[in-house]
Amino acid sequence: MNIFIFIITNNIAPIFFIIFLGSILGKTQNIDIKTLSKINFYLFVPSFIFVSLSETNIDLKLVKVLLFAFLLFLISYLLTFVVGIFRKQNKSINANFMNTMILYNSGNFGVPLIALVFKDSPYLGYAAAIQIMVLMVQNIITYTVGFFNAGLGQLSIKETLKKIISMPSLYAIFLVIVFKYFHINISSFFIWPALVYLRNGLVPIALITLGIQLSMTKFHFSNIDVYLATFMRLCCAPVIAFILIKFMNMDEVMAKTLLISSSVPTAINAVLIAVEFDNEPDFAAQVVITTTLLCSVTLTIVIFLSNIIF
């Protein structure tokens, strides 16, 4: 019950309050959502990635986490692709259908959730490091495969690749790797506080963007694909994660962290990408809202089971 209340009060309620404010703004003001999307992708997101990864100590023993995250992505990708074929989805819907499964909220939702689960444990630091590694993989997937999926629904392969290459987030990851390799402490430079300010602004701006998109969204409650995507993100993903954990012979802390981490709702980035490419943003927004609402129940169950199993 404490976990359920925490998820509602510390994750769901604040998220939906900001989304609500964005929705009011979208209804009362003439705001260009494409401009907001570009501000997110070209300023806030790369700053978030750069600062978060710079503050993370990458340990070699966490390589198993990287392998797990990529395998989870690969299996999820193939599964949604096959389901899309059986559902006879058009290219645009299938692209978003895949993104709503493979892109999950490992950052502003997953990180504080893992911190709560392990708050009284001596393994909190270890669990947090595991979650940051998941976040790093998710960022790479978002700005490569996520963009590629959304682009193919509207653009040619060449145009899609050109769009991906123009994203500063990929260069942010590369710069962090270079700075860490040469032991350069970027936090001593004047630019660091500016990047931190931008990092801190990502979540509210992204949620406001989602709210504005929702204010323009026509909800179709009969859309089976929305419910199917929700089921796959909240129910199928944890099952896949559990199978991988068992096969990879992980320690209890890593196993518990990754199972819970894999059960969080669809990332807001799925909507931002859909808006950026003008590729079924209504569908993506509906899945994000639905998974975020229902995860208060499914996550509570997953956390309860993880305490028993591991």
Automatic annotation (TrEMBL):
**Which family does the similarity line name?**
Belongs to the auxin efflux carrier (TC 2.A.69) family.
Q: For this UniProt entry, which segments traverse the membrane?
A: 6-24, 36-53, 65-86, 98-118, 124-152, 164-184, 224-245, 257-275, 287-309
* Annotated localization: Cell membrane
Protein's GO biological process: transmembrane transport
The cellular component terms of Gene Ontology attached to this UniProt record, alphabetical and capped at eight, are: plasma membrane
Membrane topology category: Multi-pass membrane protein
Q: Which domain of life is it from?
A: Bacteria
Q: Spell out the protein name for this chain.
A: Transporter
A family per Pfam = Mem_trans
Record's keyword terms, sorted = Cell membrane, Membrane, Transmembrane, Transmembrane helix, Transport
Establish whether keyword Secreted is in the entry. Answer: no
Protein's organism? Clostridium grantii DSM 8605
